[in-house]
Amino acid sequence: xxxxxQNSEALNIQEGKxxxxxxxxxxxxxxxxxxxxxxxxxxxVFLLLIRENEKEKRKERLKVTFDTTLxxxxxHITASQPADSATxxxxxxxxxxxxxxFGKGNQVVVIP
Amino acid sequence: xxxxxxxxxxxxxxxxxxxxxxCAQDMxxxxxxxxxxxxxxxxKLIYYSxxxxxxDKGEVPNGYNVSRSTTEDFPLRLELAAxxxxxxxxxxxxxxxxxxxxxxxxxxxxxLTVV
Lengths: 112, 115
Prior knowledge:
The structure holds 2 protein chains of 2 kinds. By secondary structure, chain A is mainly β. Chain A is built from no helices and 11 strands. The radius of gyration of chain A is 13 Å and the shape is globular. The relative contact order of chain A is 0.33. Chain B is mainly beta. Chain B has one domain: Sandwich (Immunoglobulin-like), CATH 2.60.40.10. In chain B, the strands form 3 sheets. In chain B, strands 2, 4, 5, 6, 9, 12 and 13 form a 7-stranded mixed β-sheet that branches. In chain B, 34% of the residues are buried. Chains A and B meet through strand 4, strand 5 and strand 10 of A and strand 4, strand 5, strand 9, strand 11 and strand 12 of B.
């Protein structure tokens, strides 16, 4: 069956360091992958999209990589700040299908 | 520009009651979705719509119904509420540019408790 896996343990990181999150998937062949941020009590907010033919995408302090051979995406927050504390969700868009399947999310806590 | 608006924000229902969760978007998006999110679980797709008059089931449609009579509105109906429907419900919308869906816009959610 199709599965999207994100680390269930919260990532605690010192302010200024780089936070790295992993998203692994099985039995998917996604056309592209997206990352979202979710704050407590709020809906997810779209951050970045990366296509299957792109290796890396950047937006300000965020960087996403996408390895279709390993079936893995890495999400990096450089120079992390306390305001980056949130849960980050990866989501896959299936071929020929515009529905997103979401991972359970990975919480990041940036310690001042 | 309000984005995606969901009402109500909170609701307590008794077992067997019915209700409609409202969702409206003002971005002229053709795609709309309903997800539920349970603690520690990912978002699960309930129903979706690719345009006015067209709806289809997602992963967990049982106990729910939808309609899409206009581009803007996509209400979710719960019939005969059950405790298993206690969850946070999110409505989302998106558009296609070519073959690319440039991210979903989510509402702020409806927290539903069935007692």
